[in-house]
Amino acid sequence: MRPKTNHRRRFILYAPAALATAAAVALAGCGSNSSAPSGGASGAPHQGGTLTVLEGASFAGAWPGLDPATDTDGAANQSYMNSIYGQLFELGTGGKITPDLATAYTFTNGGKTVVITLRKGVTFSDGTPFNAAAVLWNWNRDLAGTCTCKPVFLAKPVITQTGTYTVSLTLPYVNAPFINGIFDNIFNWIASPTAVQKMGEKAFALKPVGAGPFVVVSDAPSSQLVLARNPHYWEKGKPYLNKLIFKPVAADEPAYEAMLAGSGQVYEGMSTPQLVKTFQSHFTVTAEPSTSPYDIQLNTRAAPFNNIKAREAIYYATNAAQIDQKLFNNTYPVTQSFTAKAGLFYEPVVPGYIGYDLAKAKALVQQVGGINITLYTITSPVAEALDEALQTQWQAAGMHVTLKTFDLTGLIAVFQSHKWQAFLQTAGAYDPGTGVGVAFRFASYSPFTGVWDPKVDGMINAAASTIDNAQRTKDYADLNAYIAKMAYGPFLFPIAGYNIAAKGVAGPGLTTAIPTIVVLPGILWQDVYTSNG
Amino acid sequence: MSTSVTSGEPGTSSVEPSRPGGGTASRRLAGSPALRVIGRRVLIAIPVLWGVTFLTFIVLNALPGDAATALLGANATPAEIRAETIKLHLNESIWVRYWNWLVGLLHGNLGTSLYYNQPVTSILGQRIPVTLELVVYALVITFVVSVPLAIFSARRPRGVVDRASMVFSMASLSVAPYVLALLLILVFAVNLQWFPALAQGTGGDIRDLTLPAITLAIPLIGFYVRFLRADLLEQMSEDYTVTALAKGLSRWKVLSRHALRNSFIGLVTVIGLNLATLIGATVIVEQIFGLSGIGWELLRAINNRDVPLVEGIVLVFATIVVLVNLGTDLTYDVIDPRIRHGRSRS
């Protein structure tokens, strides 16, 4: 029986358009007057200038409103939110946590309480004070809301204002990744309580007030966000830029041409590895270090993957190195664990991990009486290319594989139906104990898991329940080994997003590498500058 | 002053002066073929618009996932999704939800966008002008280019202009709008720098609209040129044009003054029929050029399963198509008196 998604047919259907697009992009490369690739801005940072930042429409390029408490788009909106609200803590170069609106944190009470000290003398852009009362008000509002963007706790936290500039959060258990995970939830963004109360939630979402480096000039949701320098920003001499404009762009090719034409100076999250060289010929391209690899989720509650032999067959039939070589010219490091190099607790080689062996794969397929499965993934050129490569490899082992793609909403619905067999996924966190970390894909209490194993749940919880990093490293290594032993799902490699900057533009997370938060790194916009004025 | 005999109460009759343009005019108006066409079309439009919104509702509900899932994202737990489902009334049957939407519509309320949490009418109010300006601009370019090109092509069939227009038409009909847009940006935004590659603001500035309008117009020009040329050549073999030529009129005059008017009827029909395709193309073109119109918004709304917004946009699109087709019918009367008289007699 032929697979539903026929590779050759797809190629024939799309080849003319692909060739013409490639020709257009190649022509664009020839037609421009720009010369050598830029290494970012030259000289010391200086103040002034306007940047137009392009955001991919499929991820960050849509925003309904910018109130942290209702930010259902989560980390996708981080550039807007960080610019308007600043951050309590920032994730900087090399994964270093640096203070911003907070100055320090300490774990007390055996790790069950975290005390955060706030920066003194900071005001929101409406002139009201930024202090512990404001943080307390925001966090309580976040937790009282229904937004899934709020941090998830296993028990209700007790949040207390312990001083004018100190606030504490206490849980009945140790929550080691709290600070490491603050970047991918809304606790990191503090809104002006006075402005929210005065304007009302709806109006506030359209013209939010924070204590960040920029203030909102105008906001046409999902169309254009114009920000101007916050004259009352706490850090003297910053931000460098006078104006920051965010605009959505349809895809990588239009973004490239828009940048060539000068309609944008920054493009966040270019996601087509094949276009890297094209962008590099005119702009600064920075591969942002990914914190999580692509992984293949197997539904262990449904046939055929309720049988460990079928799962092992997938491991034996998957040649991640070959896919990396054929599709990406060996760009990405193959990994056997749930974190990537830029994330915490990275372990590239896992003891007991089942490697590629076609003969063994074929034998196992025969042994289980054949494997006939549907492999799902999200609608994205890279994910779809990976799916097709996996289909080819698995079919070589004698499996019958059908491919299906969905947008995010459709994908979630398939998960909820529990009627799925295999998913190609990517999602991760800087700390595997947070947000969309290891629990998201492997814990039985996650709606997006394929594994219902109490031992895995226990190991995940144990790893997050100690503030001893050495112990956490050991716990995650044990968990990696157990996932490999049970063949719960092989890992491929992390594919980073790329940030593109025009000549003369530089800044951390833009022209220097910062670990990604879910998908993209949090660019430190207050430090971004342009020498073009 | 004219007089008219009007019947009053039974058993009485009266002769009274009629107001200029009064009773007679209103009777004339009531009997007007154009008005009858409008009346008939409006009556037909009601079930058409209802059908479009109903089918859209059904199709959206058949898609995997719903607004609750889309809004809450990947982090949502089943309990949170259930709560959001109830909050958005998605737990009610599809018929109840459609009925509620329909009742709201009849009260001039298109509902609230589930994604933006703003009234649909306010979102449409911001986005419709951009799309309308784009579509009108594209049609103007199409008309201005294709009519002269078709006349020149028909003037000397298989001549240089005709062959060149044939090549242009084939090329323009073959190229996908996405690729065409990228090529236009490359030439006119990157190299010549005449127009921006992306819209600079959120409104419909003419410089922002020019490249997108040309992108939409080029395939239409290719089609209309071939269509109009063929029709003109057919007209040129009709008795009335042969007679005109025999009387000594130049081919150019016969083409432009006599044949063209008859060919316009077909062209107007095709424009009316093509409008839906043109509006559909705005979905892609608005995205590439960063225009904040309802085309791009429609795509976002579908991805977010934002049913009220999708319904609002589809209703606007359908209404435009219905109105343009009505306009097309009325234009026949202007172009061809035979149709007007035919209607008068019927």
Q: Detail the poorly predicted runs of chain B.
A: 1-22
Percent helix of chain B = over 70%
Cα radius of gyration of chain A in angstroms: 24 Å
Q: What's the oligomerization state?
A: heterodimer
How many distinct helices of chain B? 14
Task: Using the alpha-carbon principal axes, give the shape of chain B.
Answer: globular
Q: State the low-pLDDT regions of chain A, or none.
A: 1-39
Task: Explain what this protein looks like in three dimensions.
The complex is a heterodimer of chains A (533) and B (346). Chain A has 533 residues and is α+β, with helices and mostly antiparallel strands. Chain A has helices at 7-31, 78-85, 132-144, 193-199, 201-206, 252-260, 276-280, 308-317, 320-328, 358-367, 381-396, 408-417, 438-442, 454-464, 469-485, and strands at 50-56, 89-91, 97-99, 102-108, 113-118, 158-163, 166-170, 214-220, 224-229, 243-249, 266-270, 284-287, 294-298, 372-378, 400-406, 422-426, 498-501, 505-506, 529-530. Chain A has 15 helices and 19 strands. In chain A, α8 packs antiparallel against α10 and α14 (454-464) runs antiparallel to α15 (469-485). Chain B is mostly helical. In chain B, 74% of the residues lie in helices and 3% in strands. Chain B is built from 14 helices and two strands. A two-stranded antiparallel ribbon of chain B has the order 1-2. In chain B, α2 (33-62) packs antiparallel against α13 and α8 crosses α9 (206-235). Mean pLDDT of chain B is 83; it is low at 1-22. Classes of the chains: A alpha+beta (533), B mainly alpha (346). At the A-B interface, α1, β10, α6 and α12 of A face α3, α4, α8 and α12 of B.
Write the layout of secondary structure elements.
The complex is a heterodimer of chains A (533) and B (346).
Chain A: H1 7-31, E1 50-56, H2 78-85, E2 89-91, E3 97-99, E4 102-108, E5 113-118, H3 132-144, E6 158-163, E7 166-170, H4 193-199, H5 201-206, E8 214-220, E9 224-229, E10 243-249, H6 252-260, E11 266-270, H7 276-280, E12 284-287, E13 294-298, H8 308-317, H9 320-328, H10 358-367, E14 372-378, H11 381-396, E15 400-406, H12 408-417, E16 422-426, H13 438-442, H14 454-464, H15 469-485, E17 498-501, E18 505-506, E19 529-530
Parallel strand pairs in A: 1-10, 1-11, 14-15, 14-16
Antiparallel strand pairs in A: 2-3, 4-5, 5-7, 6-7, 8-9, 9-10, 11-17, 12-17, 13-16, 18-19
Helix pairs in contact in A: 8-10, 14-15
Chain B: E1 3-7, E2 13-17, H1 23-30, H2 33-62, H3 67-72, H4 78-87, H5 94-106, H6 120-155, H7 160-174, H8 177-191, H9 206-235, H10 239-246, H11 251-288, H12 294-303, H13 307-335, H14 337-345
Antiparallel strand pairs in B: 1-2
